[in-house]
Fold this sequence. Notes:
By secondary structure, the protein is of the alpha/beta class. The strands form three sheets. It has a six-stranded parallel sheet, sandwiched between helices. A six-stranded parallel sheet has the order 9-8-7-10-11-12, sandwiched between helices. A six-stranded parallel sheet has the order 14-13-15-16-18-17, with helices on both faces. The longest helix is centred in the middle third of the chain and has 16 residues, at 184-199.
Amino acid sequence: MKGAQAVVExxxxxxxxxxxxxxxxxxxxxYDALRDEKSIRNILTTHEQDAAHAADGYARxxxxxxxxxxxxxxGATNLVTGIATAFMDSIPMVAITGQVDTKLLGRDAFQEIDxxxxxxxxxxxxxxxxxxxxxxATMREAFEIAHSGRPGPVxxxxxxxxxxxxxxxxxxxxxxxxxQKPDADFLICAAEAADVxxxxxxxxxxxxxxxxxxxxxxEFTHFVEKYHFPVATTLMGIGAIPCSHPQxxxxxxxxxxxxxxxxxxxxxxxxxxxxxxxDRQTGNIDKYTKDTKFIHIDIDPAEIDKNVASAIGLxxxxxxxxxxxxxxxxxxxxxxxxNTIAGWREEYxxxxxxxRLTLPWALHHVAEVTAGKKFAFATDVGQHQMWSALHxxxxxxxxxxxxxxxxxxxxxxxxxxxxxxxxxxxRRVIHVTGDGSIKMTGSEYYTIARLDLPVISxxxxxxSLGMIRQLQKVNYGERYTACEFDYPMDFVGYAKSFGIPAxxxxxxxxxxxxFDNAMKAKGPYVIVLDIHRSFVEPMTKxxxxxxxFVDFN
Length: 553
């Protein structure tokens, strides 16, 4: 068969049922091969960056490897932001790019670009397939690398003539992988970790996104319940343990809940599970680590001791490590520690009583209305993202989709689309965005409308880049620049231009009615929230400890 058909067969072999992309001359042979393939949905997006974000959203929601395709030159370079987003958040993705014919490589042919050199820092691996005989093996290896170990994106660049070349394809016999048993040194290390864990008087567990990647939410919840440990999550770890769980203190970090940040600052032991101790999580690293021991559990050995020196590092399969740690029985009475935490919870409980429309109140209303129902949430990046992390209630893994490591504005809408295509009618996606982010990738409303996907989109309109404005207030003496949208935009008219019903609201009662209408709608729906400019609280001070907060009064 031809190379293009072999790629399609590889996709089918890997269980791929949905791909996202945008055509161009060098990738057209693959599009032609996909034309009659009924088992793979070929989603045409409005931009290649959106294709990458949609594949990312599909992967986050499903746990499978997302797939996006683009042509050479600008098609390939437009994927880069989406690939980097997936790389920073450890999301499995395979990006397939067309390339000029092998005989033209290095001659600056039309739309030739060194996409391998460009993407090398933001992929787990990348390939240029010059030999048709290596095409099938390369495709298989790409999927294996993308989803194994610490997941991440892989790029396969295929010259056009390789798509036309004759290649052989035979179905691969899948062998059952044997789980490796921990060696003696690892068992000794795990036993030491258990000793430290059981001796702690003020332990705290940080739940990171690695728990969700590993599918270990159940084991993690059993672990913290057995030892009655308090839990804080990272931004990527939201959903690893239900938000309604009584031991969860909430999201921690630069804009984390005060009770969670106070507990981290006061802990004598931090057990980080699937978290890389990013700077937005820790604040001042010297103050963060002072007088605190650490146990670091992660799939990637490179993360151990990278940002925080660990008392004990355990690198490997998370389920296996948690099972080993649960072999011991609780020894320490943590009642005094929990009493202290209860005091912080009471002191810093959020007051949702309002006399005007605010996003925290609106998100709290969304959380109440959707409680116990099948919903997922996708956000863009900015103030609305932090408010969403603080005030939504995520009780299920893989239902919180946000750009953490790269902080990519424009991620939310295409990611919501990708997730909705995975969920189908089983779960509805609610997308939260800002008036800045939606201007970047709002054209994907066209695809959402064309496919009649029931995404509910909340556009937060405060006529500014709110987080930039907040940083300029705190760090630049309120010298606001390049952050205000003084020219009005008709977001309702914008949504309606795609055929999507839309409402604009400026009061709590107006939002209640609009959200009720959105819930009743069978297709996509947009609500524009006109809110006053304000600041996300809490916010930790720059260069300070994690529990030292900015006073906006």
